[in-house]
Design brief:
The complex is a heterodimer. By secondary structure, chain A is of the alpha+beta class. Chain A contains seven helices and nine strands; from the N terminus they run βββαβαββαββααααβ. In chain A, helix 4 runs antiparallel to helix 5 (119-125). Chain B has one helix and 14 strands. In chain B, strands 1, 2, 3, 4, 5, 6, 7, 8, 9, 10, 11, 12, 13 and 14 form a 14-stranded antiparallel β-sheet that branches. In chain B, strand 4 and strand 5 form a beta hairpin. Chain B is globular, with a radius of gyration of 15 Å. Classes of the chains: A alpha+beta, B mainly beta. Strand 8 of chain A pairs parallel with strand 6 of chain B, so a sheet runs across the interface.
Chain lengths: 185, 159
C-alpha cells in the first residue's frame, strides 16, 4: 500500500498547513478488489455529450429516462483510495517530519483497514490537529482572501498575517513536490 | 464517548446530481454539538473543488457555520476523509458543493435537499429552494468536546 499527497485537498486551515493524504492498495494486497471499481468514464464521448432530456435546476424532469441514460454510459476500471486523511503541520515542519507523519498515517490506518478494523478510530489516534488559531473557515477565508489580493490584511495583526502567508507558501511548496512525499509500505 | 452524526446514509443511489450547486441534506441533522472529524461521500461522477461543512438556519434560510476544503473526489465507491476539524452544533445540516462531477442522489423517499445554484460556503446567509424527497450521499461523524482525541507536536507549538 502507499500514500500520496493530493494537492487539491491541501490548504491553510486554522493557521496550519493542512495536507490531504490519499491511501491506496496494490493489486496483490488484501481487500484490493473492494476499491478497484467500475465507474462512469467521464472521458467518454457519451458522457461529454451530456444528457439531452429536460432538466430543471439540475434535476431531470424524467428521472427514469435520466437513469436509463446514466446506466448506459461507458464505464472504466479505477483504483480508488481506500481512505484519505488530513494532517495539520506547522510551516516550520521539515520534509522529514512530514514524511514521518505520512508514514505513521499509512501504517496505522492501513493496518486497521487490512484487518477490517475501525479506520475512523485509528485515524483519531494519529490525528495531529495542530491549530494556531481556533477560527472557522469562513472567517479565515476573509483574511486569506485579503492577503492574496492585497498582500496584507487589516483584519488581523502582522504576526498572524506572516504565519498565514508562510503556511500558504509552505503548502504550495509541498504540493508542487508531492511526488517526493510518497510513502510505500 | 458521545458520537456526533450528521447527513444521510452514504451509498450508491439511483442517479447523480449536478454541480456548481450547494446542497444541504435535510436528512440527518446533527444530533450533538462538537467537532466533525470525518466526512464521507459517494460521487456518481468524479468531482473537483469539493467543499463540505455545516449550516445553521431555519425554514429556507441558511448560513454556513464552518467547512472543510476536500478537493478532488473520485467516483464509484464511498470515499472517507478523516483528520478534519469542522465546528458543528446540534440541528445543523450538512452541506456540499463541487464545481464538477455529481453526488449520488435518490429522488424520492426521503426528507429532501435544500439547494442553490452557486457556491455559498463563506458567503453568508442565503435562501435555498427545496427538492422534496431527495437524499444525497454525504455524511459525517465526530465527537463532543468532552472527549478530546488530538495530539500536538510540542516543539511546533512554541512559536
Amino acid at each position: 500500500m502507499y500514500a500520496k499527497i493530493e494537492p487539491t485537498g491541501c490548504s491553510v486551515r486554522r493557521g496550519a498547513v493542512q495536507l490531504r493524504i490519499d491511501l491506496f492498495l496494490e493489486p496483490f494486497e488484501p481487500r484490493y478488489a473492494e476499491h478497484y471499481v467500475q465507474a462512469v468514464d467521464e472521458g467518454s464521448k457519451a458522457f461529454k455529450n451530456g444528457y439531452k432530456g429536460r432538466m430543471k435546476d439540475g434535476e431531470p424532469v424524467d428521472p427514469d429516462d435520466y437513469n436509463k441514460w446514466l446506466n448506459g454510459l461507458p464505464k472504466k476500471w479505477q483504483n480508488n483510495p481506500f481512505h484519505s486523511h488530513f494532517i495539520q503541520m506547522s510551516p516550520d515542519a521539515t520534509d522529514e517530519e512530514i514524511q514521518r507523519q505520512i508514514k505513521t498515517v499509512l501504517d496505522t490506518i492501513g493496518d486497521e483497514h487490512t484487518k477490517h478494523g475501525d479506520v475512523i478510530q485509528a485515524a483519531r489516534r494519529v490525528s495531529t490537529h495542530y491549530r494556531p488559531f481556533d477560527v472557522v473557515a469562513k472567517e479565515e477565508k476573509k483574511v486569506t482572501d485579503e492577503l492574496r489580493e492585497k498582500g496584507s490584511s487589516g483584519l488581523v495583526d502582522s504576526d498572524t498575517c506572516l504565519l498565514l502567508t508562510r503556511s500558504a507558501l509552505r503548502g504550495l511548496q509541498i504540493a508542487s513536490n508531492k511526488d517526493s512525499f510518497m510513502v510505500v509500505k | 464517548m458521545a458520537v456526533i452524526t450528521i447527513g444521510a446514509e452514504v451509498k450508491n443511489r439511483a442517479a447523480g446530481h449536478g454541480y456548481n450547486r450547494t446542497y444541504l441534506s435535510v436528512d440527518g441533522p446533527a444530533n450533538l454539538t462538537g467537532i466533525l472529524d470525518t466526512m464521507l461521500f459517494y460521487f456518481h461522477s468524479a468531482a473537483s473543488g469539493v467543499k463540505c461543512g455545516t449550516f445553521s438556519g431555519s425554514s429556507t434560510s441558511y448560513d454556513d457555520r464552518d467547512y472543510e476544503t476536500i478537493g478532488n473526489v473520485t467516483n464509484g465507491s464511498i470515499q472517507s476523509f478523516t483528520g478534519l476539524n469542522c465546528d458543528v452544533t446540534a440541528s445543523d445540516l450538512m452541506g456540499e458543493y463541487s464545481n464538477s462531477g455529481g453526488i449520488e442522489v435518490d429522488y424520492s423517499g426521503y426528507l429532501g435537499n435544500y439547494y442553490i445554484l452557486e457556491d455559498t460556503f463563506g458567503q453568508g446567509s442565503h435562501t435555498y429552494a427545496l427538492w422534496t424527497g431527495d437524499a444525497i450521499s454525504i455524511g459525517g461523524t465526530g465527537t463532543t468536546p468532552d472527549q478530546p482525541h488530538f495530539s500536538y507536536y510540542p516543539h511546533i507549538l512554541a512559536h
